[in-house]
């Protein structure tokens, strides 16, 4: 039916279109009828949505096929309408009968409804009280059941609430580790039993937040702990270093007591080696038995608590990384020195205390916890710190110019190294650094002693030491090793040859050795090494500092000949005392001077060099003094005749030389002789230069005679042996050039000079033709000037011709020499 109606709706428009083609459809063949039947069956049996393709096939077939199909379709519709009508006619009478019977039953149904309603009313009235009682019973039963359920659930919830209350108490009392354990029990045991309740869900949601709060609180405590460490590291380090120093002092006292009664040797003597240093025991700063413990200075509980908390929370690695990172940062801060640290020893002490305190704490953490810090981590920190410490000490120690401060710094470094060595940290590089600091210490000592030597030289009177009594003599001998049999035989008062600076210098050199020795203490070095250090530093003092001071002293303008003579005497005695300084060092170190590698003192060369410099300065000053007298000369070069006596300036010069050479009696013979010979040669050279000066144009025979008188006085001075030790006329030979030149002009013996020139036996062998020519030309000019009105006299003309002849011959000799 449905399919027929659908088909009718779809094809109804087509019916009207095909009414005019009905007659033509009757002529279709039997095959088309069969095909239309199949299409109709397919339309009736197919869903409406799929009818489209079927209908399209009708139009795609033969022309006018749709008209025949419409006719067939109308026939099929009429057939279906007849069938529907037959079916309706068949069931119509039954439907009418059923409606009639239903109308009859309606009256009975209304009566039944009235009776049921009445019966229900009476029943409700009769059972109302029973219903009330029943409802009450039900309500009581429900309450009883609810109470039982509530009791049961409360019995499950009460432990949860008790545990949560316990958790709150633990949090309030800052027992975080116990609180974490309680949280763990709540999560794993109690909450799962009553997890369906809202308050349990709230609890479960709060637990992670509480854990985070605990982590934050414990981390805050850790940060406070790190800040506390930063503040207390100085005190911890100070205590550790003080205990290490006390431990060393105690060991030294025990060692001294053990050596009493057996044998006595210097501090640095044990078969040429230092006693092997006993390994320092680990300081007990952090041990329980001490009066002052680490817990008294630093509260470590935040570290332990935070470590346990993060361990329980499964985040230990994060905590370890954070702790190590922060400690590395603190290490860098601790290792950063103050800018003025080098000014006082307290600056170095605070620096060392902070570093020691840092590593003492790290060592305690290393041994008190498992894995928070490792030995590899502390070694890494120490290596980083050690490089920084060495660089800082190198830089700041270079600023120190006070040897006492450098010595205190060395002692601090030794205590610092011993303290950390007791905690297992390697400190070899620190002791190597001490050798660099030792060089710096020696430099500061040398600067200090240079000032000491300068003050001694400035205060010296450069005169022999007067000794009036035996006590004074013994006092000098106690300060300086002087022995002279002749002086010892003399009665008091008497004079020692050296000045007061000699025993002072000797004493100061010994003080320098003592000061240098102080640095070598506690360095764990052998006696041989210490002996070598002392000798090298003493050599530096002698060859550099004392030698420089002596050289500067000698060059000072106010140091005269008398002072220079005394300096030579002083250096001679200091040179002789060098062997006593070697014995002094040997007695300190107990190292035999015959040892193969023993360094010798270079004092001998130092004092010899100073003495040679003083001798050279004597020669220079003598020559300068001679030049000063020569500058006072005032010859009248055109005088007709001499005065008959030597010039005043020359007599003053000779008297000065006589008095000066008398002072040279204490000098070594060769020094005095060399000075005297040098003075005579310089005087001769100066006189010759004066005579041949290019600015001097004319010289008369009278001036030559006067000059000859002065040279005679010089020769007399030379022959008087002003300094003993000259053989024959050795000293007079200094004036031989002048003497032969003056004799040549005084005697006017030109024929002999020209005839014997170049012969080894010549009387005027020392007269140079150029020198004679220069002087002769000065005399020729004078002759021309004086005889301008008497040139017609025969003698004068002959003399003039002779001079011109000699001049020509001398020029030929000079030209022959030059060619």
Automatic annotation (TrEMBL):
Pfam families in the cross-refs: EXOC6_Sec15_N, Sec15_C
InterPro entries reported in the protein's UniProt record: EXOC6/Sec15 (IPR007225), EXOC6/Sec15_C (IPR046361), EXOC6/Sec15_C_dom1 (IPR042045), EXOC6_Sec15_N (IPR048359), EXOC6PINT-1/Sec15/Tip20_C_dom2 (IPR042044)
Domain Exocyst complex component EXOC6/Sec15 N-terminal: 72-241
Domain Exocyst complex subunit EXOC6/Sec15 C-terminal positions: 430-778
Record has Transmembrane helix as a keyword: no
Biological source species: Salarias fasciatus
Cellular component aspect of the GO annotation: exocyst; plasma membrane
Protein's job: Component of the exocyst complex involved in the docking of exocytic vesicles with fusion sites on the plasma membrane.
Gene: exoc6
UniProt keyword Transport, yes or no: yes
Annotated keywords: Exocytosis, Transport
Family: Belongs to the SEC15 family.
Source domain of life: Eukaryota
One of the GO BP terms on file: vesicle tethering involved in exocytosis
UniProt name for this protein: Exocyst complex component
């Amino acid at each position: 039916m449905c399919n027929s109606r659908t088909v009718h709706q779809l094809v109804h428009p087509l019916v009207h279109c095909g009414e005019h083609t009905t007659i033509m459809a009757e002529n279709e063949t039997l095959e088309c009828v069969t095909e239309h039947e199949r299409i109709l069956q397919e339309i009736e049996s197919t869903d409406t949505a799929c009818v489209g393709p079927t209908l399209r096939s009708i139009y795609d077939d033969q022309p006018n096929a749709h008209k025949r199909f419409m006719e067939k379709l109308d026939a099929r519709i009429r057939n279906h309408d007849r069938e529907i009508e037959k079916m309706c006619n068949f069931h119509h009478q039954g439907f009418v009968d059923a409606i009639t019977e239903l109308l009859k039953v309606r009256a009975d149904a209304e009566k039944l409804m009235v009776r049921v309603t009445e019966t229900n009313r009476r029943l409700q009235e009769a059972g109302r009280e029973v219903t009330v009682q029943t409802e009450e019973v039900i309500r009581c039963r429900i309450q009883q059941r609810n109470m039982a359920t509530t009791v049961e659930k409360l019995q499950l919830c009460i432990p949860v609430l008790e545990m949560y209350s316990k958790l709150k108490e633990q949090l309030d009392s800052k027992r975080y580790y116990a609180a974490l354990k309680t949280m763990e029990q709540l999560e794993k045991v109690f909450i799962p039993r009553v997890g369906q309740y809202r308050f349990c869900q709230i609890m479960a949601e709060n637990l992670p937040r509480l854990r985070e709060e605990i982590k934050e609180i414990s981390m805050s405590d850790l940060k406070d702990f790190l800040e506390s460490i930063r503040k207390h590291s100085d005190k911890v380090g100070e205590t550790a270093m003080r205990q290490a120093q006390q431990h060393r002092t105690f060991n030294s006292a025990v060692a001294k007591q053990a050596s009493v009664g057996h044998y006595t040797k210097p501090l640095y003597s044990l078969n040429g080696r230092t006693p092997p240093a006993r390994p320092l025991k680990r300081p007990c700063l952090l041990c329980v038995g001490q009066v002052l413990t680490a817990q008294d200075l630093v509260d470590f509980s935040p570290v332990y608590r935070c470590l346990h908390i993060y361990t329980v929370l499964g985040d230990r690695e994060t905590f370890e990384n954070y702790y190590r990172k922060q400690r590395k940062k603190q290490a860098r801060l601790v290792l950063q020195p103050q800018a003025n640290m080098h000014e006082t020893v307290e600056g170095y002490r605070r620096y060392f205390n902070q570093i020691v305190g840092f590593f003492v704490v790290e060592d305690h953490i290393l041994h008190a916890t498992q894995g928070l810090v490792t030995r590899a981590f502390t070694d890494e920190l120490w290596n980083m710190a050690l490089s920084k410490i060495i660089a800082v000490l190198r830089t700041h120690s270079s600023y120190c110019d006070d040897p006492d401060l450098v010595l205190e710094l060395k002692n601090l470094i030794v205590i610092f190294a011993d303290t950390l060595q007791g905690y297992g940290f390697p400190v070899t590089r620190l002791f190597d650094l001490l050798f660099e600091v030792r060089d710096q210490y020696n430099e500061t000592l040398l600067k200090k002693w240079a000032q000491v030597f300068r003050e001694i030289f400035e205060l010296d009177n450069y005169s022999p030491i007067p000794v009036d009594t035996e006590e004074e003599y013994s006092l000098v001998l106690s300060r300086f090793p002087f022995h002279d049999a002749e002086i010892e035989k003399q009665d008091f008062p008497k004079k020692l040859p050296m000045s007061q600076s000699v025993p002072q210098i000797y004493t100061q050199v010994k003080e320098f050795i003592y000061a240098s020795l102080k640095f070598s203490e506690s360095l764990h070095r052998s006696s041989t090494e210490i002996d070598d250090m002392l000798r090298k530093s003493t050599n530096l003092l002698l060859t550099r500092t004392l030698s420089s001071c002596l050289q500067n002293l000698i060059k000072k303008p106010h140091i005269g000949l008398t002072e220079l003579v005394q300096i030579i005497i002083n250096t001679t005695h200091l040179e002789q005392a060098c062997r006593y300084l070697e014995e002094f060092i040997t007695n300190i170190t107990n190292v035999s001077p015959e040892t193969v590698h023993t360094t010798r003192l270079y004092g001998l060369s130092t004092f010899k060099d100073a003495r040679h410099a003083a001798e050279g300065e004597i020669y220079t000053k003598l020559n300068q003094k001679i030049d000063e007298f020569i500058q006072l000369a005032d010859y009248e070069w055109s005088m007709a005749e001499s005065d008959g006596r030597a010039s005043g300036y020359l007599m003053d010069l000779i008297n000065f030389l006589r008095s000066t050479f008398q002072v040279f009696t204490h000098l070594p013979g060769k020094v005095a002789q060399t000075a005297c010979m040098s003075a005579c040669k310089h005087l001769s050279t100066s006189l010759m230069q004066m005579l041949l000066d290019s600015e001097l144009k004319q010289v008369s025979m009278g001036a030559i005679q006067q000059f000859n008188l002065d040279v005679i006085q010089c020769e007399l001075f030379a022959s008087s042996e002003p300094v003993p030790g000259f053989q024959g006329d050795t000293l007079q030979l200094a004036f031989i050039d002048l003497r032969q030149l003056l004799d040549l002009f005084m005697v006017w013996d030109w024929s002999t000079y020209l005839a014997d020139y170049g012969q080894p036996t010549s009387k005027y062998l020392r007269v140079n033709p150029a020198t004679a020519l220069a002087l002769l030309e000065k005399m020729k000019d004078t002759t021309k000037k004086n005889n301008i009105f008497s040139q017609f006299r025969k003698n004068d003309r002959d003399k003039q011709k002779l001079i011109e002849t000699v001049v020509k011959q001398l020029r030929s000799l000079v030209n022959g020499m030059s060619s």
